[in-house]
Amino acid sequence: MRALQAVRGTQDVLPEAARRHRRVVETARAAAELYGFAEMATPIFEFTEVFARPIGEHTDIVAKEMYTFNDRGGEELTLRPENTAGVVRALISNGLAQSVPLKFFYSGPMFRYERPQKGRFRQFHQIGVELIGVAQPQADIEVIALGGRILAALGIGDRVELQLNTLGDPASRASYREALVAYFSARASELSEDSQRRLERNPLRIFDSKEKTDQRVARYAPAFADYLNPESRRFFDLVRIGLDRLGINYRLNPQLVRGLDYYTHTAFEFVTAELGAQGTVMGGGRYDGLVELMGGPALPGVGWAAGIERLAMLIAPPPPPSPVALVPIGEVGETVALKLAEDLRGSGFTIDLGYSGNLARRLRRANRINAFAAILLGDDELARGAATLRNLANGEQTEVTLAELPARLKALADEQILF
Ligand code: ATP
Ligand code: MG
Fold this sequence. Notes:
Layout: H1 15-34, E1 38-39, E2 45-47, H2 48-55, H3 60-65, E3 67-70, E4 76-79, H4 84-93, E5 102-111, E6 123-132, H5 137-153, E7 160-166, H6 170-186, H7 193-201, H8 212-218, H9 230-245, E8 251-252, E9 264-272, E10 280-286, H10 290-293, E11 301-307, H11 308-314, E12 324-328, H12 331-346, E13 351-353, H13 359-368, E14 373-377, H14 379-383, E15 386-391, E16 397-401, H15 405-418
Parallel strand pairs: 1-5, 7-8, 12-13, 12-14
Antiparallel strand pairs: 2-4, 3-4, 5-6, 6-11, 7-9, 9-10, 10-11, 14-15, 15-16
């Protein structure tokens, strides 16, 4: 029955994956806090216009990837395809523009109707940061440094490359645009249909095309660097000097453009060679015109978003927690087990209660759940106010009074972490 399958492009996050996701989010959250970013969340759906105009009518996202629907009241809504527009909407609707600079961290699900493949889903999850209200290049530098710190803390710092480009200010962009239209028009017949359409509306997008033919033509296109005005060039130089000072390595990629329309100046991506065509794990840049475009005051901004699934695939699997298995053997054991489990949890131990089956079966479960110790509750020992404590690393077991249990479990836990 079709209804019993997850919808194409969606996945269940089972415990092993959930541990990976959690590691990514918690690592990012802790690092963001070090830089003074505060966590916030916006709704998963918004009025469609929150995304349509800022992201850009002719981007892939707005043209073909949004989940847009009418609710029962006839409102046209869209499941968020990314979170920058939502954060900016929230900043305007909550009147936060007075209190800039604002530094936000978020994590949560995003939705795009894309062709599912490795590292590309229709519901996926992102962590991200936005720094709003700072026009200085220090903001770009810190936002990139934060991204780099998270990747390093996840243990993948040396498996990703930072790629950097500038999209200049709107004036530079306009003159570059002209040069691009001239170049691509001359070779229009070699471009894919999609890119022929982009040519008129948004020629920069052609660089983002995944079509081989487009990439071949784009390789020899004019470089943005030659069209930057002095202010834009100066801004980019300052970003680069700052990164150099922090010892952050990067490679200039003049063809790096971002998927959304609202970027200016700095554009960057952290890319891995390990995930094929879905190698971008984190992407971001400066979006100075966005807040104003959305109806707020003219505030600059810079930020990034990273794909949790892609990061989760790269990190070492976080170990599952190692509990204590509580195994009642006789009738008395069954009656005291629930209460003893609660008491031990109260002392801070992770307790897995064996509900049924014979001793062998319950011990097999203890091994399967990676327990470091088992407490066997036999009727005879319980009559003496005691239980059997089994070290599951080496099978050794001793009789321990119930009063001593917490201290003995603690000693065992410490010992197993030490060796
Ligand atoms: P791509 O070029 O891979 O389509 P993008 O430019 O559309 O990426 P952004 O909008 O910049 O991606 O989103 C930031 C990050 O979110 C990406 O670098 C990627 O890690 C992740 N991401 C984007 N789309 C998806 C998706 N459909 N499935 C999983 N992760 C995604
Ligand atoms: Mg995309």
